[in-house]
Design a protein that fits this description.
Elements lengths: L2 H26 L7 H23 L8 H19 L2 H17 L1
Helix pairs in contact: 3-4
């Protein structure tokens, strides 16, 4: 097999892969087909994102420094916004903004 044939085969495989990976969600989650998996993902994604952010924030934390106060203040703001507003995006943005504010000053 020469180089040109190889490149043509690679391009065809890549084009078909791209086409089918973009087509599959439309086929599986078309209107009228209620999916329990999709409902589960939609419900559990915001808490998973928040937990990932908390773990990321706490992973390299020095628990003997004043930065601990900043971190737990940001966590408290995030929890507060989530409890009172029930808006995951607002909670994540508010907590991240408070944490970044404290880290930058």
């Amino acid at each position: 097999m020469n180089e040109l044939d190889y490149l043509i085969i690679v391009i065809i495989v890549m084009a078909l892969s791209t086409y089918f990976t973009r087509l599959i969600p439309f086929v599986l989650f078309s209107p009228g087909r209620e999916s329990s998996i999709l409902n589960y993902v939609a419900k559990s994604t915001p808490p998973m994102v928040m937990m990932i952010l908390v773990v990321y924030m706490l992973k390299d934390m020095n628990y003997y420094s004043y930065e601990l106060v900043f971190t737990f203040t940001a966590i408290a703001v995030t929890i507060g916004f989530q409890v009172f507003k029930r808006n995951a995006l607002l909670s994540i943005v508010a907590g991240t903004a408070v944490y970044m504010f404290f880290v930058q000053i």
